[in-house]
Amino acid sequence: MNNPARLRDFVHxxxxxxxxxxxxxARMLEQGRVLLADxxxxxxxxxxxxxxxxxxxxxxxxxxxxPLERFSVVSFVWGPGQATPxxxxxxxxxxxxxxxxxxxxxxAPASGAGPLAALGEHHLAAGAIDIVSPRVGxxxxxxxxxxxxxxxxxxxxxxxxxxxxxxxxxxxxxxxxRFVSGYSARATPESWQ
Length: 193
Hints:
Layout: H1 5-21, H2 25-40, E1 59-65, E2 72-78, E3 86-87, E4 93-99, E5 101-108, E6 117-125, E7 129-132, E8 139-144, E9 151-157, E10 166-169, E11 176-179, E12 185-186
């Protein structure tokens, strides 16, 4: 880590955006995407403590939560072969790939009871940005697309995502179970020294 000021500058800029447009999701996503793209084009700021994989499951590290919970910034770390379950967010979000690559499979609920509809998939290389929201599409499964390597992405959500009640889905039946993700760890001011 050479430049921890990059995250501080990102948080300041995103706070200004939230001050101006917190109730305007389209503006938050449009302008926030530009800020996140700039952050993830530089791989010299994330402390190694927040880029550590776990041998059995992906990690979700809280880097910053706005005091008013208008947004949170989280690093996701994927070991080889690791994936999320199919899940939703219930708030807007952005994903910027910092290292490696990710595969995103998108789904939609059936019109009645039944399996989720598979909408397709796309791959995100380092530097790519993806968007989620109940308005534009919110159900997906994400996996590490870098065989044998660790992938790291930076996520920004329109809430303290670790405290939001969300859903995990069984894609074969469409059944949903509520969950709250929490975090693997939270950054402290000392962790950025």
